[in-house]
Amino acid sequence: MVKVGIYGASGYTGQELLRLLIGHPNADVVALTSRKFKGMPVSEVYPVFAGMTDLKFVDSSPQQLVPSCDVVFLALPHGEAMLVVPEFVAAGVKVIDLSADFRLRDVSVYEAWYTKHTAVDLMEKAAYGLPELYRDDIKGSNLVANPGCYPTSIILGLAPLLREGCIDLSSIIADSKSGVSGAGRDLQLGSLFCEVNEGFKAYKIGSHRHTPEIEQELGRLANTAIAISFTPHLVPVNRGILSTMYADLNKRVSSAEVVDIYRKFYDGEKFVRICKAGGLPNISSVRGSNICDIGCVVDERTGRVIIVSVIDNLVKGASGQAVQNMNLMCGLPEGAGLDHISLFP
Amino acid sequence: MVKVGIYGASGYTGQELLRLLIGHPNADVVALTSRKFKGMPVSEVYPVFAGMTDLKFVDSSPQQLVPSCDVVFLALPHGEAMLVVPEFVAAGVKVIDLSADFRLRDVSVYEAWYTKHTAVDLMEKAAYGLPELYRDDIKGSNLVANPGCYPTSIILGLAPLLREGCIDLSSIIADSKSGVSGAGRDLQLGSLFCEVNEGFKAYKIGSHRHTPEIEQELGRLANTAIAISFTPHLVPVNRGILSTMYADLNKRVSSAEVVDIYRKFYDGEKFVRICKAGGLPNISSVRGSNICDIGCVVDERTGRVIIVSVIDNLVKGASGQAVQNMNLMCGLPEGAGLDHISLFP
Amino acid sequence: MVKVGIYGASGYTGQELLRLLIGHPNADVVALTSRKFKGMPVSEVYPVFAGMTDLKFVDSSPQQLVPSCDVVFLALPHGEAMLVVPEFVAAGVKVIDLSADFRLRDVSVYEAWYTKHTAVDLMEKAAYGLPELYRDDIKGSNLVANPGCYPTSIILGLAPLLREGCIDLSSIIADSKSGVSGAGRDLQLGSLFCEVNEGFKAYKIGSHRHTPEIEQELGRLANTAIAISFTPHLVPVNRGILSTMYADLNKRVSSAEVVDIYRKFYDGEKFVRICKAGGLPNISSVRGSNICDIGCVVDERTGRVIIVSVIDNLVKGASGQAVQNMNLMCGLPEGAGLDHISLFP
Amino acid sequence: MVKVGIYGASGYTGQELLRLLIGHPNADVVALTSRKFKGMPVSEVYPVFAGMTDLKFVDSSPQQLVPSCDVVFLALPHGEAMLVVPEFVAAGVKVIDLSADFRLRDVSVYEAWYTKHTAVDLMEKAAYGLPELYRDDIKGSNLVANPGCYPTSIILGLAPLLREGCIDLSSIIADSKSGVSGAGRDLQLGSLFCEVNEGFKAYKIGSHRHTPEIEQELGRLANTAIAISFTPHLVPVNRGILSTMYADLNKRVSSAEVVDIYRKFYDGEKFVRICKAGGLPNISSVRGSNICDIGCVVDERTGRVIIVSVIDNLVKGASGQAVQNMNLMCGLPEGAGLDHISLFP
Questions:
Q1: Of the candidates A48, A341, A342, which has its C-beta nearest B341's C-beta?
Q2: Tens of pLDDT along D165-176?
Q3: With b meaning 16 or more CB within 10 Å and e meaning fewer, what string describes C49-87?
Q4: B198 shares contact with chain D (CB less than 8 Å)
């Protein structure tokens, strides 16, 4: 059994990690840290865990966690993860960091969009934790930067087109829509029920921090720098991200051919499903599961390809993908503990 | 492996059975019937199953199913289940009937609230499938009448008080609130999104068909006839039932003492959790799980006890409890395939 | 034109008052106070007002407001309203207080459920602002205590039965369900979208502060002290309260007779509608309007009467009723500015 | 008073027309037709109207309506409106048609996307009922084709850019999101609460029937043929459309300059509000009102302009705009009966 710690476990991604890991056949959660809820049973903070675990939140330093953990998940805010990662890595504990601190490879880009980086030498050692693209890197790494939720949906959605080289790289637009859990459990006016329910809005157009992460990874796939337009929106649902992506085709292909390209690209992937031609995905079909569903349409009138991808932002967009990365890093079956069928309705 | 058929599998309870049984370690679903969707892969009707199963709907008669099934779940409308149950039972196939056809023990009551019964001799042979109360009956039976969703929440909520004998039996009121999936997947005006969303209403006050079922079971617990007031309401959520129950106490007990009575009554039960004194349950804590959470309050000013119980109407209120019954009938661990932690948020 | 000030105008009831008063043919809003948003245009805090008004929030003392206002609405928290009411009243400004500070007539009851009262002498001078019951008091008063949202729904729902004298006064139960705006715009974990959406719960059973207000008013109607069980629940909708009320009948009456009693009692009332026998109300039918819809059922099997009432908690449950009171106090037509048809869907 | 008939009044747009017209100071609704609900009071089909009107649905022919009506609104399905329009027009009754039958000017385009047209001669006589663009046409016309909901949001959103001539006309993408009332009140699986709630999906990508209408109007603004990519999505809310529009700029302009262009273009318009630079609209700010809110952003990194517009699909996207058109056709103040402040929350 892999001994697991969750560092900064009190938010929605932390509790989702716990849900997944309690049901994992090869993992034991040995510690959950939270300064705020120190000493409290996790089942008091999240009643779903009543009777499922006796774990209590502790307020431990990395040094205190090291002896008992094989793997640590970091569910800390950006800027805080980089403060503890070096200690875990130095002590030989495998780290899966759910923050943005080790996702970007260019320090200057990180510092332009976030804050000063204090562990620059580790940035290039981190693997980008998108298993469908970087499985071998992840297997060989002790530090995995778990991708952002929006980036996961967009990169998985565009990777086959970029590898195929059939789109105009300057034409990419990603219009994304996220459920509210993506904003976390912090007390913010914009997260209140009455402010969100029966509403719908775009936010941070052209300025969301996930933009450089998306562009970095699309650029790696295309072997050249790429700039995109990325527009996030807020949907009044608990979970789910749907990204609608547009690009100009540079050659004639049909919807069916695009579906073929996607099916080949993701052949054998357990967590990516391609809709048949004409089919389009719904976030309600992936709720609670680690799956990414993708639909492909060619708009022949305009010569554009439109790709729609959906994930559960807390699972494939965060904690589920983190567990998938743990499985790879620890030599476990990649899908261990991740066989949930989506909960519908 | 237990070979399982689901008869009338195209509604929400049918697909929920399939979700639970695909993940069940000791069961194989061998057939799904649906006249309407005959020949279609279940993954086209419910996209959550894409990649999870290759099963297609068939339109088979009981005779055709009998040879391949050890157990059959019936997810048919009231009045239709009774038409096929005798054949399955006669052939030695274990039957778990999710309709109301075998829940009532008094034919005249059934016929007063439903329709003419065509399999009267089997009514008394059926076990009432509430394992926390009738575990042994269920183990020994080949025909289990799976309880209604409202009755499950109310009977589990009141059983300890009735056994304890501390309430006035003429004073019981159950004010219940159900999510919309309880109305099924039929096309009805009242189930349209715009008719339900941002709304809340009571319906069928004093006349809902679950009333005689609730009264029968409360009466068995109290060893005397009981009449209650039962008011169902519709909540704009997908899943969940919350029942708020009121009764006049016939002796002084505190909230803490009532909690104790409940803890003792349900001691060792895997699927019932009692909130600590002062605690109250939320349907969001049981979503997707087979658990019933119960909170207990004594209102000392009025001498009343108020009990609040919550279940997921599609799981403990239907398909999960049906699987629990299958486990008992087949000698499997009672909780096999039912260890889901609730999905929150 | 009546010159109106709104004191403490930044919450949902404050903005709802503004919505209603901007559309009022006989009122001019001359001042909105908010310490928090001082200096900001109201249209920045609530974008619905863009282009509708140029008003900005001010941070004014009562003395500063007095010269410009004929009427002041107080949308302050309990305990704060009593600090400013005396000054307004002394200066001859009519006051409609939306807090609980002047609803209770018995100081000791107020102080037991709330806090020390600092304006005791004004308590008995305040009229209880439920026009359907106390129209004349309100017309003659300079200080009106606007009723709570739950009390409005329950008192209107039970008044005809109490006046008729046909129920057992010790048997009254009110099971109420409120939308989320009732909790206000404060930042609380329990008001976050993800904590509320797809959930349903009871809270503060037997201990909600509206209990003594409800009991006071039911007692006045019955001419004797009354204790009830009151259970509030939280519904995942923005607006609306539905109260389901139970009482034992002390004589035989049919549903149709109860409907008649209600129709007579509320004859000529513009803001109360009685459903025909068999009909039940839905909160979605009163959204945005000042109307209370009431349905009546006799459960002959148990000898109970069940009454269901619905209001919009922000309108008839708060700001709309406050405007209705202003109309009465100022000699305007009672329905002026309150002729909105509910917004459906 | 203008005497008004609503033909085909039983759906959501019909009842919304009735809501608006009951509150209209210069209009009297004299007839509501519905084959389905013939003889029923409208308050039984839509309880919001209880006590507001005594109108009953009638099943009248155009000939029967003509004598009593100055204006008729047609809320019929596409293909049915064209069957009755000629008779009303010939009789001198002003017609506002909410269907698509008279929106397109090119018969062949209509017939390619819809069905055979039976009143071709009236197609060119119809005014396109978008007052902000075609006010004079509408004033002089007896037949107004009320725009589609998606087209209204997109055309208002792009008109200033097209007139300014600052975008690449081949680069336009409209990514739209609609609430569920846009699908009407028909019984469809896809409109059931449990199918929609907690879901989000795109549909009819590149093939939605509003595409030619949008392209026709954008082309008129640009004086050249335009093809766009249009992707509709379904949001789990009752009301509201948000359209996110993308176009490549053909010259450098800042966000502030685009805001200026929009403010000038819509100067004096009562129903269009432009957010200040940096601001973005939310559908919850226009719920129940006839307003279109627009936000403008230039993404300097990619040289694109992104416009976000929001409307209430049932008001500015249908019935409200229809009343605005009636006002213009009848010489009434353009905003008569349309001064509702949005209902929030």
A1: A48
A2: 999 999 999 999
A3: bbbbbebbbbebebeebbeebbbbbbbbebeebbebbbb
A4: yes
